[in-house]
Specification:
This protein is an alpha+beta fold. 44% of the residues lie in helices and 21% in strands. A 4-stranded antiparallel sheet has the order 3-4-5-6. A two-stranded parallel sheet has the order 1-2. A hairpin with a 5-residue loop joins strand 4 and strand 5. Helix 1 runs antiparallel to helix 2, helix 1 runs parallel beside helix 3 and helix 2 runs antiparallel to helix 3. The radius of gyration is 33 Å and the shape is elongated. The N and C termini lie far apart (107 Å).
Length: 252
């Protein structure tokens, strides 16, 4: 006798091996966490590798999920890690590119001021550009500045060394006949308290033969913040070391 009772159904016919379970991919979860951590690169370039790892791990997670035939999930986490990491790396690259461009521009303007001062024979102004700007001499005129410098033995000697420098004497002799142009930047370093820019300028002048000749000058500037001086809120530039003749590698 046949029975249509539902109790005659064998509920154990479906084995556990036939049931497909899905779980999130570990690589997808880790990539999402690393993608968020990639924004630490704004605090230090040492964290740049976190964003790179997050991007690579995101692609690996997506590839793994695609080939898991539904067993693995987590595409949302993988895409989150990929997007956040790319955003962090792109943003920090754009930020530092703009920051370095601003540094080169500021330093270039300051270096040109130094060249003009030397070419015009304005030793007080050119010499003071080597001092931290809050401590530069406030002398009302050149005569007062010279009197102040000659009053001290060390400052007197420093002025003589500055004027006797070969580069200074050449620039002063050429005066307005020399044309100073930016050539390239050798190095830019940034820090919490100071920024440094090392640049090369080309000085072109008419020679006695009627042809124009050019020599190069390496000049190093530093921008610092006057901590401890409440009246000064902005950073200022100074010449870190005496500029000198320089021959670029491409001319050696």
């Amino acid at each position: 006798m046949n029975s249509d009772s539902i109790f005659d159904t064998n509920w154990n016919d479906a084995s556990e091996e036939g049931i497909a379970y899905s779980r999130p991919a570990v690589s997808a979860l880790v990539s999402a966490v690393l993608g968020l951590a990639a924004f630490l690169v704004f605090f230090s370039w040492l964290f740049f590798f976190i964003g790179v790892i997050a991007v690579l791990l995101s692609f690996f997670a997506l590839w793994t999920i695609r080939n898991a035939e539904g067993i693995l999930t987590g595409k949302v986490f993988a895409y989150t890690g990929l997007c956040t990491a790319l955003t962090a790396l792109t943003a920090v690259t754009v930020f530092w590119s703009a920051y370095h461009h601003g540094l080169r521009r500021e330093a270039g303007q300051f270096f040109r001021m130094w060249f003009v001062a030397v070419q015009e024979g304005d030793i007080p102004r050119a010499k003071e550009y080597q001092s931290i700007y809050p401590y530069r001499s406030s002398a009302a005129n050149a005569e007062e500045w010279w009197e102040t410098q000659y009053a001290g033995r060390f400052s007197h000697r420093a002025v003589h060394q500055f004027v006797e420098d070969e580069l200074i004497r050449v620039l002063m002799a050429l005066g307005g006949k020399a044309r100073v142009t930016y050539y390239k930047t050798l190095e830019i370093t940034t820090g919490k308290e100071e920024d440094r820019v090392e640049s090369v300028f080309a000085v072109t002048f008419p020679a006695e033969s009627g042809r124009t000749e050019t020599f190069f000058v390496r000049i190093n500037g530093i921008r610092t913040y006057p901590y401890g001086l409440p009246d000064f809120k902005a950073a200022g530039w100074r010449i870190e070391e005496p500029p000198a003749f320089y021959l670029p590698d491409e001319f050696k």
